[in-house]
Amino acid sequence: MRSTAKKAVFFDIDGTLWDRYNVIPESTIEGIRALRAAGNYAFICTGRTRSFVQHPKLHAVGFDGVLAGCGTHIEYQGELLYYHKIDRSLAIDTLHTFRKYDFFPILEGKDYIYFNEEENGFGETPYGQKLIRELGDRLRRVDVFLEEGEVSKFSCGMKDGGDPECFEKLSPHFHPLVHNPEVVEFVPNGHSKATGIQKICEYLGVDLADTYAFGDSVNDLEMLRVVGTGIAMGNGTEDAKEMADYITSDIYEDGIYNGLKHFELI
Fold first, then answer.
1. Which of 114, 171, 193, 220 is a Cys-bridge partner for 107, taking CB atoms 3.0 to 4.6 Å apart?
2. 126: left (phi over 0), alpha (psi -120 to 50) or beta
């Protein structure tokens, strides 16, 4: 017999809720609203820090909360439940380490993201342009961080997979999530989307067996592993599909709606 307990469903943003142009399929909106109308929880669950989860389109869908920054920030119904801030001296040392090994740093905090547009020509890249366009006044230069900023994780541009010595040097404090030879996230040890989900479930009294997650890439792997049912998008990476319990259709082919329907969540 199917459990009638309240379910909690977690949704990655990029490549899952919306595409590279910030287009959210109408079926996704319909599905998530139906999920909540049926009495279940819906959470954004993203590697983006909270400063980069501001787009009105996302919040207009309707979510119970936001798990941001790979588990370093948790909100429920607008209330901050948990936030991990990296010690300032460690953050500054880490910034210097990135530059020593020719990594291009993006410092990600709760309120602001810090990077220098001209450094390595980053402001001219598609991702740099996306950050500039979406962040608006939440974008700050690195020297502002050095004066008064706070961060909870890092992302970096790198060349040819980066210098292994840099990864080793930072391993006591951070674990890397390598997206490709040019992009890596550095997340504080002890934090991930999975740890954030566990904290939310403990707070809400939801059994992990009654949790579901939709994701598409490397920073979703621990999330897909920890939930009761991990669902990879049809457009997801091979490692996400291998980790998942179920592969739904592509984002453009009603992937979230079809996944929710398949598991009778709507």
1. 114
2. alpha
- What pLDDT does residue 191 have? 97
End-to-end CA distance of the chain: 17
The confidence score (pLDDT) of residue 129 equals 83
Say how many C-beta atoms besides its own lie within 10 A of residue 101's C-beta.
16
- What is d(CA 250, CA 119) in angstroms, rounded to the nearest whole number? 35
Contact predicate 28/257, CB 8 Å: yes
Q: Which two tokens stand for residue 39?
A: 């009495």
pLDDT in tens, 169-189: 999 999 999 999 988 999 999
Which residues 6+ apart lie within 8 Å of 194 measured at CB? 71, 222, 223, 225, 226
Whole-number percent of the chain with pLDDT over 70: 98
How far is the C-alpha of 94 from the C-alpha of 25, rounded, in Å?
A: 39
Q: What is the pLDDT of residue 120?
A: 67
- Whole-number Å distance between alpha carbons of 30 and 123: 35
User: 10 and 43 in contact (C-beta within 8 Å)?
Assistant: yes
Number of other CB atoms surrounding residue 174 within 10 Å: 20
Q: To the nearest 5 percent, what fractions of the chain are helix, strand and coil? A: 40, 25, 35
